[in-house]
Each structure stands twice: as structure tokens, then as C-alpha cells.
Amino acid sequence: MADRDGIVDLLVLGGGAAGLVGAMTAAGVGARTVLVERDRTGGDCLWTGCVPSKTLLAAAATARTRAMLTGQDPDFSLVRTMIRDAIAAIEPADSPQTLEAAGVRFIRGAARFEAPGVATVDGRTIRFRQALIATGAAPHVPEVPGLAGPSVVTSETVWDLPAIPARLAVIGGGPLGCELGQAFARLGSEVTLIIRSTILPREDRDAAALVKTSLEADGIRVLEHTRVERISPTKPGSRLELRDGTVLTADTVLLAAGRTARTAGLGLEHLDISTDAHGQIITDPRMRTTNPSVWAAGDVTAHPRFTHVAGVHASIAARNAVLGLNLKISPVVPRVTYTSPELAAVGATHPPGTRAMVRTIHHTHVDRAVTDNTTDGFTRLIADQRGHILGATIVGPRAGESVAEVVLAIEHRLKTSDIAAATHPYPTYSDGVWNAAIADVRARLRAPATAAVIKILLLLRRWRADLDTRLIRR
Ligand SMILES: Cc1cc2nc3c(=O)[nH]c(=O)nc-3n(C[C@H](O)[C@H](O)[C@H](O)COP(=O)(O)OP(=O)(O)OC[C@H]3O[C@@H](n4cnc5c(N)ncnc54)[C@H](O)[C@@H]3O)c2cc1C
Ligand SMILES: NC(=O)c1ccc[n+]([C@@H]2O[C@H](COP(=O)([O-])OP(=O)(O)OC[C@H]3O[C@@H](n4cnc5c(N)ncnc54)[C@H](O)[C@@H]3O)[C@@H](O)[C@H]2O)c1
Fold first, then answer.
1. Distance 298 CA to ligand 1 centre (A)
2. Are 264 and 132 found together in one domain?
3. Of the four, 193, 349, 427, 467, which is 20 to 30 A from 284 by CA?
4. Does the interface predicted TM-score (ipTM) exceed 0.85?
């Protein structure tokens, strides 16, 4: 939708999580908005990311239970149908029709900048006042000889596998490698994770260790601090030579070694839009690029690569762009790795100073975990010396749900005493957060000054009660 001059208020490049939210936010406040998508609206999350991977994990868990009960092998065609059905159920919300209904004009094609205020889509010119780059990121391909072979898949192509690979080598031990590695192991693959760092390197080490133990219990071989030096074809599959001298063979190699921002061919140079050393678009806290009329959000930027981050940042960018607001992004970003056990975290994972408090509740003390026989987990809260909550790490079932409360607490500078004072339902996994907050409050009550005040109150109360009793007797 353009005005009489043919100029649009906001041109959005890319129709994934960031582009969709950005475009609908702008159109929602009445801005003339055009979204250009070169492929399918919905982006990575819908087609090759969150939706298929979470469905695969659920299908794998079910298949494992069924196999234990009946001895039946998992049916991969059924798993693929479940994935297709989940995508089909969510897809309408991300469709061009939904965009048009929200007042966004949708154009299919590849967009690129030509000059300030001018872009083209497959040769057709679009003039714009502001633009939002939301072109996402693609799987990073490390420089390993032989990696381009036919048995190598990425998060974009793994969904087309015709059958469950008998032997799967996964390069990378971030959320992607752990989630898909565990899912395929539960479907029957013999899985090896090859990780140049430690597993889940951004997470609390105790939490990552629990996930590692669980993956190993599923039969996964976890090789840390090593990397693939060379891949050569064998029949069938590949032979992988690792730096530490290990040699292994695999039918399929899954690349899960991070992502590379999609900026090639966008014409950033025509608008002086800068990227960092990793090729990610540089933005300020308002999500503005180095060009004051161009904004960016989602995986194409240097921010954590999650759907919720893409959406929130795009919404902020769109409102700043079309309304001239000064909204800034929040540094409080939760993340969840949907392995079994689930690992959720927000804010600080380590005490930032010697006076910060770490309160850990092992899930042997969370009754719901006891009744469910899922006590291999913990809830860890980090608070400053006054009790303000700085971070949390939770490992266990529904950790992603439980962490949401801590997100709100950090955003609003709440203290452990605020969480402790709020009644939580029993028995739930959120008891872990509650119990950790209560443990912190109790520990603070034992501090000498507080303990002295409490003692005085107790003595006063006792004296007063005795006095009242004596008066009544008279
Ligand atoms: C296997 C996997 C599992 C994941 N699981 C989770 C999860 O559980 N939770 C979570 O929060 N995140 C998850 N993520 C991350 C999440 O998918 C991304 O953070 C999110 O999709 C980023 O959205 P985006 O809009 O920035 O990019 P994208 O979704 O990649 O969208 C960008 C769009 O731009 C289009 N495009 C590119 N160039 C152009 C151009 N020149 N012109 C027009 N269009 C263009 C592309 O075709 C694409 O549709 C997962 C990722 C993967 C790979
Ligand atoms: N649950 C979720 O939210 C979820 C799930 C999957 C993916 N994602 C997102 O998708 C993106 C991609 O995920 P990812 O796990 O690939 O990325 P990542 O950057 O989180 O992890 C990459 C992993 O690969 C390892 N690695 C990198 N190069 C290597 C090499 N040459 N050899 C061996 N190991 C190597 C790293 O040490 C690290 O363990 C991430 O940004 C993530 O946020 C999110």
C-alpha cells in the first residue's frame, strides 16, 4: 500500500518472525506498509526451525515410549506427517492473506536497496521512507574439506530425509545440535555430537552437564573440544576425521554450527548500512542501523537468534520507524533448549560479584518432580545483595514455562521476597522458583541485623501476650 506519490512508509524485507511482526505492527498504527518475501512467509521458525523441531522432539518422545511398550520401530512417515500437520495448523497466521487482512501489501520476490529511499524487487522499483531489514540467517558452513557432500544436511534440508539415518553425526552442540541429536537418537539413530567447545557453551555448567548426561543416557556419543578436519565419501555416507584422531562413519552429517546473517545481495553498500566482523547488521538499542532511515531485527542482527527476540525487536523497530518513537530493546532475554530435560535460562548465569547470592533448589525437593519421577533437575536463582533477581537457570520438565515468571521479575526489578510472597499452586514445577525465592528470603532473615530485629519483635510480642493474659485473669 503506497500513498499518491507511490512512496511507502515502511518497506519490510523478509517475511519471517521479524518481518511479519514488524509489518503488522506498522500497518496496525496506520502506516503504509509493504512486505517483500522471496520464498515462503513464516520464515525459518515455521518451515525449518521451531515448529518442525519441536514437533520432531514430541514425536520422538512418543515413538520411544511406544517402542518400549510394544517393541515397534518408529514410523518416520508418521513423524513427517505430524510435522506437516503442525506447520499446516500454524501457517495461516503467517500467510500473505493474513498480512493483507492486516493492511500490509505483500509482494513476492527478492528485495535489494538501490539508493536512499529506493529498492527493487526483481527489477520493479519501490520507493520508501523507512525500511526494516528482516532477512534472517542461514546455516553456517564451516570450512571443512568434503562438507559439501550429498550426505551432509542442514536445518533447512534435514526435514527432507527419506528415512531415519542409522548413524547420524552432528557437527555442533548448541540448542540445534542437542535438540535434533536427541530427537533422532530417540527415533533409533546412532548419534555422535562433535563439538569444538563444550556442550551448550552459553549455559550454566551444571545445567549443561545434566543435559549431557541425559543425551548420553539416550545413547548419544558426545565428543567435546574437537572438530572435524576432513570428510570423505564412503558407501553409504561419510567418513569423518576429527582433530583428536577419532575416525567415525555416518550415513548423514547434520550441520548445527551456528548461523550466518543473510545480507548478501541486499545492496547495503548503497545505503551505508554497516555490518560487524561476523557480517551481522549493526543496530543501536532502538534497532536502527547505521543508516537513520533503515532498521533491522531478527537473526540478521547480532542479537540472540530466537523467534521471540525477532518479534519483539521488530515491533520496537517498526514503531520507532513509523511513529518516530524512542523505544529501546530490553536486555532481558529468556532462552530455552527443548531437550529432555528442558533447559531454560534468563539473565545472569553466574553471580556477577562476590556479594550476589545463588540459591539452588534440586528437584528432589520439588514435589511435582518427585511425583513425576523427574528429579534430575534444579532451579537456580541469582540475586543481588538486596534480593533483586538477576537471573535464573532451570533444568527439568516445563522449565521454559517456569522461567517466564523470572523474566517478569527481572524486567520489573522484583526481589526474591516478592516471589516468595506470591502463592504458587501446588504441586507444580514452578514450586522450584518459589522454593528458591523462599530459601533466599529465609537466608536473609538469618543475617545478624535482621535476626536481631526479629528477636526483639519476638520478645516484645511474648511480653505483650503475657501482659494481656495477666490482665484477663485479674
Ligand atoms: C532448527 C531450529 C530450531 C529453532 N528453534 C527455536 C525455538 O524453539 N525457539 C526460538 O525462539 N527460536 C528457535 N529457532 C530460531 C528461530 O527460528 C529464528 O530466530 C527466527 O526464525 C528468526 O526469524 P527472522 O524473521 O529473523 O528470520 P527468518 O525466519 O529466517 O526470516 C527471514 C525471511 O527473509 C526472507 N528473505 C531473505 N532475503 C530476502 C530478500 N532479499 N528479499 C525478500 N526476502 C528475503 C527469507 O526467505 C526468510 O523467509 C530455531 C532455529 C532453527 C534453525
Ligand atoms: N530452542 C531454541 O531456541 C533453538 C533451537 C535450535 C536453534 N536455535 C537457534 O538457532 C541458531 C542456530 O543454532 P546452533 O545450535 O546451530 O547455533 P549455536 O551458535 O548456538 O551453537 C553452535 C555450536 O556449534 C559448535 N561449533 C561451531 N563450529 C563448529 C565446528 N566447526 N566444529 C564443531 N563444532 C562447532 C559451537 O561450539 C556450538 O556448540 C542459534 O542461534 C539458536 O539460538 C534455537
1. 8
2. yes
3. 349
4. yes
